[in-house]
Amino acid sequence: MVEVWGPLIGGLLLLVAGGELLVRGAVQAAERLGVSPLVIGLTLVGFGTSMPELVTSVQAGLSGSPGIAYGNIVGSNIANILLIAGVSALICPVVVARSALRRDAVVMLGVALVFAALAPLVPMGRAVGGALVLCLLGYIWFVIRQERTTAGGGALHDKSRALAEADPALAPSRSERPLARAVIIAVAGLALVVLGGSLLVNGAVALARGFGVSETIIGLTIVAVGTSMPELVTSVIAALKRQGDVAFGNVVGSNIYNILGIGGTTAIIAPSRVPEEIIAFDAPVMVGVSLLLVVFAATGLRIARSEGLALVAGYAGYVWLLWP
Predict the structure, then answer these.
(1) Sequence-ordered alpha helix ranges (H) in the chain
(2) Is 124 helix (H, G, I), strand (E, B) or coil?
(3) What global pTM score does this model have?
(4) Given its phi and psi angles, is residue 5 left (phi above 0), alpha (psi -120 to 50 degrees) or beta?
(5) Are residues 188 and 25 in contact, defined by beta-carbon separation less than 8 angstroms?
(6) Can you tell me the distance from the alpha carbon of 264 to that of 83, in angstroms, rounded to the nearest whole number?
(7) 10 Å Cβ neighbour count for 323?
(8) Which of helix, strand or coil describes residue 275?
(9) Is the separation of the CB atoms in 90 and 275 below 8 Å?
């Protein structure tokens, strides 16, 4: 089994390490080029924890494994809500800002509904992928405009803040380091995530064959949880610091990025159909748990420990249902 688990674990480690280097180099280069710290935080840093999902889904799509590609996206969103938000609430009740609930959580639920509605009707081709990416860019532009005039932020701001607090080196700080050095760091990080994504996909395919289960199940569970590790770490750190609002924003922001950014980019680079298993079961589950999170957050503008326990139990039940 070393031949199976070795590439899988090695790929995950390379993805995490390479993603951090890529974001760090990109942030430093953007600072040297005079990009606004707000824009850096909402784009480069905000996308940092989603880098493993992005590279893995694109690599899986290019390898002809749409089950892993879209299983990773849908499974990561389900894990973000049930597992990560649940664990965060168990550590410290998650306080929810009214603005984050009204704007970002509703957007998260909306994009989940759009994905679930589109998947059975049309292939995830370049036109659909382009539309999803344009929606993400429009959403980021709207958030940047709003946050320039409103103190606090929202889900995208909290997502970048969670990553920056987990690793202060990723926080925009007006670095004076040479541009060439920043570019080299970013390129090295990119090389590592590409290699890590390839290893992870190959390991996942081998694992599916070894266990005699579908690639889709591996993508929805092992790959999805593995690529969601940065979100888990950053949300847990936020919860330990009693910054529940940041943990909530990190989960919501990640789910928006996953569908619009990662799903859109995957469809552009490697067009394919979403597997029937995901259409029939997992996409509706994603919509259902997204709605459940909104309902929990709306009741008293907090997610209590009892609700966190229900979310974690829900994830255990979901995985139990998936595995034969």
Answers:
(1) 2-32, 37-40, 51-62, 66-79, 86-91, 98-99, 106-118, 126-149, 155-166, 179-211, 215-218, 224-227, 229-240, 244-256, 264-269, 276-277, 283-298, 305-322
(2) strand
(3) 0.86
(4) alpha
(5) yes
(6) 24
(7) 10
(8) coil
(9) no
Instruction: Give dist(CA 94, CA 303) in Å, integer.
Output: 5
Joined together, the tokens standing for residue 221 give 């569970």
Q: Does pLDDT of 74 surpass 90?
A: yes
- The crossing angle, in degrees rounded to 10, of helices 2-32 and 179-211 is 160
Compute and round to an integer the Cα radius of gyration of the chain.
18
Residue 67, both tokens: 């089950």
Distance between CA atoms of residues 59 and 63, nearest Å: 6
**Cα distance between residue 322 and residue 78, in whole Å:** 13
Half-sphere exposure of 59 (CA within 13 A, CB side): 24
Segment 113-158, tens digit of pLDDT: 999 999 999 999 999 999 999 999 998 888 877 766 665 556 666 6
Mean pLDDT taken over the chain: 83
Whole-number Å distance between alpha carbons of 199 and 10: 7
- For the chain, report the end-to-end CA distance as a whole number of angstroms: 20
Question: What CATH topology corresponds to 2-322?
Answer: A middle domain of Talin 1 (1.20.1420)
Q: For residues 20 and 41, what is the distance between their CA atoms, to the nearest angstrom?
A: 14
For the stretch 152-209, pLDDT in tens is: 556 666 666 676 666 665 555 555 667 788 788 878 887 887 788 788 888 888 877 7
Q: Read off the amino acid at residue 85.
A: A
**Alpha-carbon dihedral of residues 16, 20, 21, 26, nearest 10 degrees?**
140
The CB density around residue 200, as the number of other CB atoms within 10 Å, is 31
d(CA 172, CA 44): 10
What ranges do the domains of the chain cover? Answer: 2-322
